[in-house]
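Example (one chain per record):
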Amino acid sequence: MSAMRKALLGAALVAAVVIEAGGTARAVGREVLPEADLAHHGHVSLWEGRLDVRVVSENHGPSHVSQATVRLAFSEPLAAGQELPTSCLWGGDRVVVCRTGELRAAGAPGELALDLRTVGSPDEMTVTVDTVWRDGSTDRNPKNDRHSVLVLATGDPYVF
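Predicted structure:
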């Protein structure tokens, strides 16, 4: 094998596999992306047009995430003029998008609480929770940060 081929092969191997202190990374082309496993769990309750949403966001690692964004999408429109926590923004009349804050690998979870009102008083609605941004990291297990839950207007907590 020529010296040039050996040098190119070596460069390709370096670009393909990188191990960081405190975590792992995956290469895409020549760019190395950290890997994190985000998970969202919690519960949703609906009664008389009131909606209570609790989300706990965790990072099972191996790399830390300085910031992530979780999207909450609702099948029924939410009443206008409601205030959201400072970490959240409206993405439309059926969508709320929130920052999770720093999620350290295997560290303390981030918590989010929303008390909302719907337009009218629906008998049921579907709430979808998913990660829309994870600070540039990859996630090989996205199933635990994407949930869709049917919530009946009983006031009972429906867990995801």
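Caption: Confidence is low (pLDDT under 50) at residues 2-26.
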